[in-house]
From TrEMBL:
Its EC number is 2.7.7.6. GO terms for biological process: DNA-templated transcription. GO terms for cellular component: DNA-directed RNA polymerase complex. This is DNA-directed RNA polymerase subunit. One of its GO terms (molecular function) is DNA binding. The keyword Nucleotidyltransferase applies. It comes from Zea mays (Maize). Belongs to the RNA polymerase beta' chain family. RpoC1 subfamily. DNA-dependent RNA polymerase catalyzes the transcription of DNA into RNA using the four ribonucleoside triphosphates as substrates. The lineage of its organism: Eukaryota, Viridiplantae, Streptophyta, Embryophyta, Tracheophyta. Gene3D superfamilies: 1.10.40.90, 2.40.40.20, RNA polymerase Rpb1, domain 3 (1.10.274.100). Signal peptide: none annotated. Residues 152-433 form the RNA polymerase N-terminal domain. It is an enzyme of class 2 (transferase). It comes from the Eukaryota.
Length: 487
């Protein structure tokens, strides 16, 4: 889509303002026609005899000069001596010499460096900010040179149009049409651009103010297309709904990149909230029936057909849908020889994803042994975990030999035990042992009978009387692991 030149200046940092070494507000005023500047002319006589880039700004020049010219004469004068809008920015960028910018910026930086500190805090601060700006300007110019990019390419002369698949039109019943907001914004751009083209063709009759106003409208609608909120209040439709611009479609968690490209949903995976499963073994996890039947559905269908419990896939799916008892029997057989992988985001180290032997549980939550929480940095306050099903024999072998939780008891970073008691488990042990100073465990330094059916006689040889030497404790991580194995 071709249009008059358009530029977007709202990005921070603004590369255009950096290269031209001008405040962003002045450039915005120039883009939207609030003021003009003298066009540099070489070896040509000029009416106003103005020179320099932005050196002599002519505020409201159109109102003061246009009455002295006819419409065609003013257009000729304007094109020769003054410039405004995005086209003026493009001319200034095209006239830049990046190597000269680097040399001049380096000279100015050295001068500021040689001046040192003046003792005036405000002046020193301005000098420090200027030095940082010069460094960024030199780096930006070097990047343009290295990438072989011309600065004037930052100003749009041709507006790209998204493919139709990314801005669909949906037809509903009753001749209702639902279209993407991008289509509506493109329609506005086309409409205003056509109006501007019509005025430029009839430049002899169209007033200069009308042409400039239409150029400003084109710039505003292009800004709305690229970033709806760049001009303050976002653009709304007739129902007071904010239009979603291109930047709104791209950015954020639900944007095109993070939603479609980086966060793809994969097959043979599920996700649910985790809850504690204290009755599980360390290498087990509890899968809800709904998740398990979805993950292992193809395996269940295969076994149903192999065991002649059904004749085809359609009937097998119907049996699964109706939840017949044979389905759960086959599901348990399939799960018995198939590990699953549990992962909690963010996966910052190797123990962020581990393998478990699944077991069926009621409800809709994944049950997890409390001692494996530290490796995942998880707790039971609403955390979610993803479950993945390894398909190939190599993946299953890797899960069994390297990734099972009971084979990852030590931290890969520092070698300390990773399966330790934390949070609620410590409180529970304290409550259980609050009336028994002998504790509920035994280590190699102490042997204490803690059976609930065994009556302890504290008076026999005073053996079970509490003394400081007999206080149960873990003197090292090996005691903790040994106590766990002897539980």
């Amino acid at each position: 889509m071709s249009s008059d030149s358009c530029v977007v200046l709202k990005g921070l940092p603004s590369y255009i303002a950096n290269l031209l070494d001008k405040p962003l507000k002045k450039l915005e005023g120039l883009v939207y026609g609030d003021f003009s500047f003298a066009r540099p002319s070489a070896k040509k006589p000029t009416f106003l005899r103005l020179r320099g880039l932005f050196e002599d700004e002519i505020s409201s020049c159109n109102h003061s000069i246009s009455p002295f010219f006819s419409t065609p004469g003013f257009a000729t004068f304007r094109n020769q001596e003054i410039a405004t809008g995005a086209g003026a920015i493009r001319e200034q960028l095209a006239d830049l010499d990046l190597r000269i910018i680097i040399e001049n910026s380096l000279v100015e930086w050295k001068e500021l460096e040689d001046e040192g500190y003046s003792g005036d805090e405000w002046e020193d601060r301005k000098r420090r900010i200027r030095k940082v700006f010069l460094i960024r300007r030199m780096q930006l110019a070097k990047h343009f040179i290295q990438s072989n990019v011309e600065p004037e390419w930052m100003v749009l002369c041709l507006l790209p149009v998204l493919p139709p698949e990314l801005r669909p039109i949906v037809y509903r019943s009753g001749d209702k049409v639902v279209t993407s907001d991008i289509n509506e914004l493109y329609k506005r751009v086309i409409r205003r651009n056509n109006n501007l083209a019509y005025l430029l063709k009839r430049s002899e009759l169209a007033p200069a103010d009308l042409v400039m106003c239409q150029e400003k409208l084109v710039q505003e609608v292009v800004d709305t297309l690229l970033d709806s909120g760049s001009r303050g209040q976002p653009t709304r439709d007739g129902h007071n709904k904010v239009y979603k611009s291109l930047s709104d479609v791209i950015e954020g968690k639900e944007g095109r990149f993070r939603e479609t490209l980086l966060g793809k949903r994969v097959d043979y995976s599920g996700r649910s909230v985790i809850v504690v499963g204290p009755s599980l073994s360390l290498h087990q996890c509890g899968l809800p029936l709904e998740i398990a039947i979805k993950l292992f559905q193809l395996f269940v269908i295969r076994d149903l057909i192999t065991k002649r419990a059904t004749s085809n896939v359609r009937i097998a799916k119907r049996k699964i849908w109706e939840k017949e008892p044979i389905v759960w029997e086959i599901l348990q057989e399939v799960m018995r020889g198939h590990p699953v992988l549990l992962n909690r985001a963010p996966t910052l180290h190797r123990l962020g994803i581990q393998a478990f032997q699944p077991t069926l549980v009621e409800g809709r939550t994944i049950c997890l042994h409390p001692l494996v929480c530290k490796g995942f940095n998880a707790d039971f306050d609403g955390d979610q975990m993803a479950v993945h099903l390894p398909l190939s024999l190599e993946a299953q072998a890797e899960a069994r030999l390297l990734m099972f939780s009971h084979m990852n008891l030590l931290s890969p970073a520092i070698g300390d035990p990773i399966c330790v008691l934390t949070q609620d488990m410590l409180i529970g042990l304290y409550v259980l042992t609050i009336g028994n100073r002998l504790g509920i465990c035994a280590n190699r330094y102490n042997s204490c009978g803690n059976s609930p059916n065994k009556k302890v006689n504290y008076n026999i040889n005073n053996y079970y009387k509490y003394t400081k030497d007999k206080e149960p404790h873990f003197s090292s991580s090996y005691d903790a692991l040994g106590a766990y194995r002897q539980k």
